[in-house]
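Is this the right way to post structure tokens for a design question? Let me know if I should format differently. Anyway, here goes:
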């Protein structure tokens, strides 16, 4: 069962064998809780073992434990947390995207784990040649390699499909090998066209790695399910 108070994310009760020796000799119960502190990628299985006269708490770190990821529309209540995670705070993209979403010009999505934001992306409904365009995907560093980008992409594709679109476009820095691998696995295909990007709103390659000013355009059909 899930706990409503962060950072306790789950609780599992089970019958445990009686130890032959130790502080918890006799009948006892064990409860394992899954706990993930803020700003870490380490979860903890916490066993609370209660015996006739003693109790023990045993935290066991579990790196990269897969938790449930939820994707939904950004609400105004999300903005304070999203502002803290912006890749380029000087651009105030969280507020800009939310304003555009309220006006119906884009769909602004956030991926969360409980009440903790993991990343955001937008589906731009106003791009001149690429409509709709999946762009500005930003998965927070502490949440990477956990399927957040895939979850955001899939949810926004579903939104585009429900709105009546038959395809989705995106533009990606050809040096962003990880993103390209993800998009290809999601059945995006290169169109052979490129988009000139003078300044990236969301950095696509690490600092120190050469970026391209000509993003490759990829397209995915939404007709096949």
């Amino acid at each position: 069962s899930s706990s409503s108070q962060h950072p306790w994310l789950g609780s599992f009760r089970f019958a445990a064998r009686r130890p032959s020796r130790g502080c918890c000799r006799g009948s006892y119960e064990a409860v394992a809780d899954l706990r993930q502190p803020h700003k870490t990628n380490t979860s903890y299985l916490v066993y609370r073992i209660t015996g006739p006269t003693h109790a023990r708490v045993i935290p066991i770190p579990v790196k990269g434990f897969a938790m449930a990821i939820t994707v939904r529309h950004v609400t105004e209540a999300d903005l304070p947390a999203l502002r803290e995670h912006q890749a380029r705070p000087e651009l105030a993209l969280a507020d800009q995207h939310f304003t555009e979403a309220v006006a119906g010009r884009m769909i602004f999505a956030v991926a969360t784990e409980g009440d903790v934001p993991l990343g955001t992306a937008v589906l731009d409904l106003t791009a001149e040649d690429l409509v709709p365009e999946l762009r500005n995907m930003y998965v927070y560093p502490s949440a990477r390699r956990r399927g957040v980008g895939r979850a955001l992409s899939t949810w926004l594709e579903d939104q585009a499909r429900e709105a009546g679109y038959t395809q989705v476009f995106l533009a990606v820095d050809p040096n962003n090998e990880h993103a390209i691998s993800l998009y290809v696995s999601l059945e995006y295909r290169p169109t052979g066209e490129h988009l000139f990007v003078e300044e990236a709103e969301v950095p696509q390659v690490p600092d120190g790695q050469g970026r391209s000013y000509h993003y490759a355009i990829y397209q995915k059909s939404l007709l096949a399910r």
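Format looks fine. Someone answered above. Worth noting: The chain has a mean pLDDT of 77. Residues 56 and 108 are 45 Å apart (CA to CA).
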